[in-house]
C-alpha cells in the first residue's frame, strides 16, 4: 500500500535539510525553521496543537511554536522526520489520512518559494489521494462563498459548494486545487471560469480551515 504521507514527509525534511533553517516559504513571515516548528507542535504538543484551528487558543499555540522554533535545527528536523507513534495525527492508523494533504502542501510551501519552481508530475495514486481529501476541503472552505461553485479535477471528479448565486467554476489538478483551497491561491495553477469580479474575489479570499 502506497505511503504518500511518509514520502511527502521525507521529501520535505530532505529539502529543508538542504536549504537550511532560514530559507523562505510561501507562508508570509515564515522560514523553514518556523514551518518545522509548526509541524513539531502539531504532532507532539496536543496542548497547543488545538490552537492551529481554534482562534481562542491561537495565541498560546503561537507562543509554543516560537519556543519550539528556538531549538536546535538538526533536532527539529529529526522530530519532523520521525513522528511519535502516540501522536493523534501521525500514528500508524491515522498517518495517511491526516498527513498526506498536510505534508504535500507544506512540501510545496518550500518548493514554490524558490525561484524557477515548476509543478511536479504527481503519480495517479497521489493525485487520487489528494482529490479524496481536497474534495472535502472544497466543501468546507467554500461553503460560505457567495456563488454557485463547481470545483473540478479533470479525470477525478467534481463537487458543488458555495452559498448559491452566480455560477463560478474552479478547475485544476488535485494538488493545485489543494493549494488553492488551503489559502495558497497566488501559487496555485488553476483556472477560474465565471464573472471576473467574482473570480478575483475568490483569488483574494481567506481560505483554509
Verbal overview:
By secondary structure, the chain is α+β, with helices and mostly antiparallel strands. The chain folds into 2 domains: 4-111, no CATH class; 124-203, Nonspecific Lipid-transfer Protein, Chain A, CATH 3.30.1050. 50% of the residues lie in helices and 10% in strands. It is built from 9 helices and 4 strands, in the order H-H-H-H-H-H-H-E-E-E-H-E-H. It has helices at 4-19, 32-44, 46-49, 58-69, 73-81, 95-111, 124-141, 174-181, 196-203; strands at residues 148-153, 157-161, 167-171, 191-194. Helix 2 crosses helix 4, helix 2 (32-44) packs across helix 5 and helix 7 (124-141) runs parallel beside helix 8. The protein starts with a helix and ends in a 6-residue tail after the last helix.
Write the layout of secondary structure elements.
Blueprint: H1 4-19, H2 32-44, H3 46-49, H4 58-69, H5 73-81, H6 95-111, H7 124-141, E1 148-153, E2 157-161, E3 167-171, H8 174-181, E4 191-194, H9 196-203
Parallel strand pairs: 1-3
Antiparallel strand pairs: 1-2, 3-4
Mean pLDDT: 94
- Weakly predicted, low-confidence segments: none
Number of helical segments? Answer: 9
Shape: globular
Number of domains: 2
Largest sheet: 4 strands, mixed
* Computed Rg: 17 Å
Q: Count the strands?
A: 4
What structural category do the secondary elements indicate?
alpha+beta
Report the β-strand fraction as a percent range: 5-15%
SSE order, one letter for each helix or strand: HHHHHHHEEEHEH
Amino acid at each position: 500500500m502506497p505511503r504518500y504521507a511518509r514520502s511527502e514527509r521525507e521529501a520535505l525534511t530532505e529539502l529543508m535539510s538542504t536549504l537550511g533553517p532560514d530559507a523562505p516559504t510561501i507562508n508570509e513571515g515564515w522560514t523553514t525553521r518556523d514551518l518545522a516548528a509548526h509541524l513539531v507542535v502539531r504532532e507532539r504538543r496536543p496542548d497547543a496543537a488545538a490552537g492551529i484551528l481554534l482562534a481562542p487558543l491561537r495565541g498560546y499555540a503561537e507562543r509554543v511554536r516560537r519556543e519550539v522554533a528556538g531549538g536546535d535545527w538538526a533536532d527539529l528536523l529529526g522530530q519532523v522526520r520521525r513522528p511519535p507513534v502516540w501522536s493523534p495525527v501521525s500514528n500508524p492508523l491515522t498517518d495517511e489520512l491526516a498527513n498526506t494533504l498536510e505534508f504535500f502542501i507544506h512540501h510545496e510551501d518550500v518548493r514554490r518559494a524558490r525561484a524557477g519552481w515548476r509543478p511536479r508530475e504527481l503519480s495517479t495514486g497521489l493525485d487520487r489521494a489528494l482529490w479524496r481529501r481536497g474534495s472535502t476541503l472544497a466543501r468546507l472552505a467554500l461553503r460560505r462563498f457567495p456563488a454557485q461553485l463547481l470545483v473540478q479535477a479533470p479525470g477525478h471528479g467534481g463537487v458543488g459548494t458555495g452559498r448559491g448565486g452566480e455560477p463560478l467554476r474552479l478547475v485544476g489538478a488535485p494538488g493545485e486545487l489543494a493549494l488553492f483551497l488551503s489559502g495558497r491561491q497566488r501559487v496555485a495553477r488553476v483556472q477560474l471560469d465565471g464573472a471576473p469580479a467574482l473570480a478575483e474575489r475568490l483569488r483574494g479570499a481567506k481560505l483554509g480551515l
